[in-house]
Amino acid sequence: MKGKCEFADDCPVRRRRAQAERLAQDPKRKGELGELVFVLTAASHGLIVSKPYGDSASYDFLVQSGRRILRVQVKAAFTERQGAYCFNVTSGRQWYYTEQDIDYLAAYIAPVDVWYIVPVHVIRSTSAIVISPGARLKQRGVRFEPYRVAWHLLTRKSQRKTQSVIKGDKSEPSSHPEAGAPP
Fold first, then answer.
1. What is the pLDDT of residues 52-93, one digit of tens each?
2. What distance lies between CA 159 and its chain's CA centroid?
3. With contact defined as beta carbons under 8 Å apart, do 84 and 131 qualify?
4. CATH topology of domain 12-155
5. Which residue in 17, 102, 154, 172 could disulfide with 73, CB within 3.0 to 4.6 Å?
């Protein structure tokens, strides 16, 4: 990209932002694109990614690192409002995500191509979160900066033997000792 200017007609950054704005008009496609980018990025970090059959699970993906399996919900934002990106963090059934539903939220900000890997305990009892990439102290969205590009939360090895998430009984909480633990 040497010699390319963000303001030039053929600038790749400008084209990506324009495409993101067009895609933001279709929420279903926006979510699908966010999921595709998640799979590619997670795999590039050495994670094994599986998608459950159908769309009735409370999570989008199972992510495996070694013997550790985590439930991840993916959300994508394509439009900025006052320097921030808003994510709806309720399930389609209108309840908040809890430790019984997911282990992590993976929030993708498409125009700046950045991921936030947020433990579920951080978003508990919240219907929406606001993330401002690069926010500083006392700015809106600053509380999520520790989770910016925090793929290590998904890849770190468990200290104890973990069990599979899939138990058959949805009422059982996750058996992952580190799931949702702060970094």
1. 998 889 899 999 999 999 999 999 998 888 889 999 888 666
2. 24
3. yes
4. Trna Endonuclease; Chain: A, domain 1 (3.40.1350)
5. 102
